[in-house]
Amino acid sequence: MSSSNQTFDTNKIKICYQILELEVNASWEEVKQAYKELAFVWHPDRFAHNPKLQVKAQERLKIINQAYEMLKAYYRQKAASASKTVFETPPPPPPPPPSSSHKKQSTNQKTYQTNPSNYASASKKTAKLELSLNPIHIIREATGMLIMPTYLASVSILLPQFILIIILTFISNSTKNSELQNASDTLTSLFLLISYSFTWISGQGAVTFYVWKKLDNKNITVVESVGESINKFFTLLGATILYWIIVITGLILFIIPGFFFATSLIFYLQIIVIEKSSVIQSIKRSWQIVKGHRGMVFLNILILNSSASQFNRLTWSDDISASLFGQLMYLLVLPYTITYTTLLYKKIVEFKVSGGRS
Fold it and tell me: Which of 90, 99, 177, 337 is most buried, taking the most CB atoms under 10 A from its CB?
């Protein structure tokens, strides 16, 4: 039966919208975008470290593909009935198949892999990725993406951290000038320090989640982002502790290994928030993502953190004016830093999922 004469069950169409996480009667562009995003999220290659999850991802991706195909036929029929142009199909997420000129050969896969034109294509893809990872390109994209509403929302998420560190600074300054620090001051400082650690970790997780949703053109509130991050707080805490143990150990051992580990594990926060991974999985996954692109990632981190680290260092200055200035500037710079890192993560992962060679 041709698509122009095919009848569609309204309930099934609604289910297809639900599977693609869309409102009923979303536009075709929204359907294509949702399909690409979900195919990215559920691509089995992302779960190579866990066979059980990989099987579930394959099953989920199959359902997503079926829903997309039904909606594609549904929209094509609507277009035909309205005498509109047939919609184009978005490129599939898996690697491209062998060219038609090699289909008759019995060793299709080997022919595809050894064909010089395919290696040239892969080299062009890699060159294109390296160009897109150029810090200037990412700075432009991050600046364009972090428009005022998004930026203000990110700053508001981090505001409790800023307030707590100001209070800690004043308490620290007052106790230094007093001859005796009583138990009440100690407990207050300890409580504020724990609260600061909580807001620092959950705040960065919330901003990451918020920025990621905005990158995917999804609506998200500050409260929802904070709630999502709080749910993952202990995972974020464990991964943060593990990350710094590894990096500091590397710095103690001839310094260079520390930079190597800091580069290789830089995406642990994005992986926990976006991919919902565990502590160990986030460390392994970051290593896997950065592999093949460490030089460019290190260059980006070096440029990205040069100013942020200076402001963060000022935060702990004995001079209260310098400390407050450092805290304010760090608050203003941190949303951009997180956006920049999340963009970097997105570019590399999309390249690898699409079949690019590193």
Answer: 337
CB 77 within 8 A of CB 28: no
Q: How far apart are CA 313 and CA 328, in angstroms?
A: 12
Structure tokens at 101: 């000129």
Rounded Cα–Cα distance for residues 296 and 299 (Å): 5
Tokens of 9: 């069950």
User: What six digits make up the tokens of 245?
Assistant: 């143990």
Question: CA-to-CA distance for 271 and 176, rounded, in angstroms?
Answer: 41
DSSP state of 316: T
DSSP string, 253-316: TTSHHHHHHHHHTTTHHHHHHHH---HHHHHHHHHHHHTT-HHHHHHHHHHHHHHHHHHHHHHT
**pLDDT for the residue 110:** 36
Residues 255, 259, 265, 267, CA torsion sign: positive
d(CA 225, CA 210): 6
10-81 adopts what CATH topology?
Helix Hairpins (1.10.287)
Residue listed under structure tokens 């986030």: 282
The answer to whether 238 and 205 have CB atoms below 8 angstroms apart is no
**Distance of alpha carbon 341 from alpha carbon 325, whole angstroms:** 24
Over residues 25-58, the pLDDT tens digits come to 888 888 888 888 888 888 887 777 778 888 888 8
Give the span between the Cα atoms of 21 and 24, in whole angstroms.
10
pLDDT tens-digit readout, 98-127 = 444 444 343 443 333 334 444 344 445 555
Q: What integer pLDDT is reported at residue 171 of this predicted model?
A: 67
Residues of the chain with CATH 1.10.287.110: 10-81
Predicted pLDDT of residue 33: 85
On whether the CB atoms of residues 192 and 174 are closer than 8 A, the answer is no
